[in-house]
Amino acid sequence: MTILLTGGSANGKSTFAEKLATELPAPRCYIATMRPFGEESQRKIDRHREMRRDKGFDSVERYTDIAGAEFEQNASVLLECMCNLTANEMFDDNGNIDETAYERILAGVLSLEKRCENLIVVTNDVGSDVLGQYDDSTMRYVEILGKLNIELAKRFDVVYELVAGIPLLIKGDAL
């Protein structure tokens, strides 16, 4: 089964994703994509590690090339999150954009899907805010992430949007 969770920032996607994942059969793998770029991101990483500490996940830190993530066969996999993965794949250390990122990321997610029993992917709805206020590179990021979200939503069995911590079923059967 494939499940996509989307919504705005800080709307309960991670909490809901972990709840769903713990209801799926073990083994469970949590693929974390956030790079620790300073104190704020490290605090968020630490908070997420604490949230999943006793939930039976094998954690894999994988900032790029998720197709290369290693986990037990037939695992239930939680990928957190597409936003960080997209930024990591798109931008080099100088802010230059790699235009092949979309294809690599999509291929990576599809590779995970083929290798696991269940796949939960967390992403953000980045196209709902006022778009004209960003620079060109940020707009390109929004476009690529939006395109990935659309493609995954088409392919996945279940899609939820999280609003104020409430999961709203968009596609598929409620879990």
Shape: globular
* Low-confidence runs of at least 5 consecutive residues: none
Distance between the termini: 11 Å
Helix content: 25-40%
Main β-sheet: number of strands, strand sense, barrel status? 7 strands, mixed
How large is the share of residues in beta strands? Answer: 15-25%
Strand and helix order? EHEHEEHHEHEE
Q: Treating each run of at least 4 consecutive H or I residues as one helix, how many helices?
A: 5
What is the C-level CATH assignment?
Alpha Beta
Give the overall average pLDDT: 92
Overview of this structure, please?
The chain is an alpha/beta fold and 175 residues long. It has a single domain, classed as P-loop containing nucleotide triphosphate hydrolases (Rossmann fold). The chain has helices at residues 13-23, 39-52, 82-90, 101-115, 136-155, and strands at residues 2-7, 28-32, 57-61, 76-80, 118-122, 158-163, 166-171. A seven-stranded mixed beta sheet has the order 3-2-4-5-1-6-7, sandwiched between helices. The model has no long low-confidence stretch (mean pLDDT 92).
Describe, in short, the structure shown.
With 175 residues, the protein is α/β, with parallel strands linked by helices.
Question: Secondary structure elements and their pairing?
Answer:
Blueprint: E1 2-7, H1 13-23, E2 28-32, H2 39-52, E3 57-61, E4 76-80, H3 82-90, H4 101-115, E5 118-122, H5 136-155, E6 158-163, E7 166-171
Parallel strand pairs: 1-5, 1-6, 2-3, 2-4, 4-5
Antiparallel strand pairs: 6-7
Helix pairs in contact: 3-4, 4-5
